[in-house]
Amino acid sequence: MNRRSDNAPLAPAASLDAKLAVLRRGDTYPHAAERIDAVETHMSWVFLAGEFVYKLKKPVRYDFLDFSTPEARRRDCEEEVRLNRRLAPEVYLGVIPLSLVPGGGLRLGDEGEPVDWLVRMRRLPERLMLDRAIRAGTVTAGDIRRCLAVLAAFYRRCDPMPMDAAQYRQRFVAGVHATHRDLAAPEYRLPANVVQAVASAQLAFLERHACLFDRRVEERRIVEGHGDLRPEHVCLCAPPVFIDCLEFNREWRLVDPADELAYLALECEHAGAVSIAEAVLVAYREATEDDPPEPLIRFYKAYRASLRAKLAAWHLQDHPDEPARQKWEDHARRYLELARRYADSLEVTEGA
């Protein structure tokens, strides 16, 4: 992973530290906000301000995205709002500038010279987020059926994406190799034999059972989906909404809905909710006319769990202190164990 911060000179008031300091103050916002909670993610800072949420992109550049300039961040903010309104139309309110005003201060709004841009959202009830509800033990089968009814309708509205079957398979082959290279890096201290076995099992499955992937393309199942369907992005309100889609890379949003739902099921399993994970896929089959083969679902889970292990390992670069390092190593190992379990199950009967 290559990362580079924007090296363009900034006025002191427009530095990242200055922006973060201003956004931590309640009087920055155009509404009542007695308490501001700031949450750092891999690529953003999120500010919980009263009834609203504001997201500031970090000025970073990776192999797969470029947020290194204010203009790039503005474009991505606008794309995030556009895409997320597909599944959360009342949540994503728009894009708001952070402006340099006369005297050198920073203010949210159009007054002054924009130096950065934030996505503005309506705050959702934390107790209704699926990850919180799983921990509280309050998720019902009806909740899952309502979620899948919304998602099934969304996938039906999506236009099938034209894609060559060999191209679809090659995306997975390239992804397996890239993930293997990262997970095998010695600084992540992951078991090399498990990393190798997981990658080898996925590559062998792709070669032996190409027909399973080809059939999904031939049935025109590939759509521009959510791209990051995890429990923390699902709100069990009425109707359910789905936030934080993967906005910065369109290719990663071109997915088989069965892949997205396998990912959601995997994340529920990772959270300890195996029955919810099973209910997700049952509800998907009931809400659609789609019945993806179980071996393909197992492959999707193995592939997604490997990716999640890699993303957890990447966090080690941002958190060198030992307590945080131990946390992310544990996350990586847990996902790698899930990947191993599903990779071990990839033997399927002929003709599946």
CATH fold-level topology of the largest domain: Aminoglycoside 3'-phosphotransferase, Chain: A, domain 2
CATH architecture of the largest domain: Alpha-Beta Complex
User: How many β-strands, per DSSP?
Assistant: 12
Number of domains: 2
Number of helices, where a helix is a run of at least 4 consecutive DSSP H or I residues: 12
Largest sheet: 6 strands, antiparallel
Structural class: alpha+beta
What is the averaged pLDDT score?
Answer: 92
Order of helices and strands: HEEEEEHEEEHHHHHEEEHEHHHH
Specify the CATH class of the largest domain: Alpha Beta
As a whole number of angstroms, the C-alpha radius of gyration is 21 Å
In one word, what is the shape? globular
Strand portion, in percent?
Answer: 5-15%
pLDDT < 50 runs, ≥5 residues: 1-10, 348-352
Q: How far apart are the termini?
A: 37 Å
Give an overview of the whole structure.
There is one protein chain. With 352 residues, the protein is an alpha+beta fold. It has two domains: 12-123, Phosphorylase Kinase, domain 1, CATH 3.30.200; 130-344, Aminoglycoside 3'-phosphotransferase, Chain: A, domain 2 (Alpha-Beta Complex). Helices cover 48% and strands 14% of the residues. The chain has helices at residues 16-23, 70-84, 130-136, 141-157, 165-183, 192-208, 210-218, 250-253, 257-270, 274-287, 294-314, 322-344, and strands at 36-40, 44-49, 52-57, 61-62, 65-66, 92-100, 106-108, 113-122, 223-224, 234-235, 241-242, 254-255. Strands 1-2-3-8-6-7 form a six-stranded antiparallel β-sheet, with helices on both faces. A two-stranded antiparallel sheet has the order 4-5. Strands 9-12 form a two-stranded antiparallel ribbon. Strand 10 and strand 11 form a beta hairpin. Helix 4 packs across helix 10 (274-287), helix 5 packs across helix 7 (210-218) and helix 9 (257-270) packs antiparallel against helix 10 (274-287). The model is unreliable at 1-10 and 348-352 (pLDDT under 50).
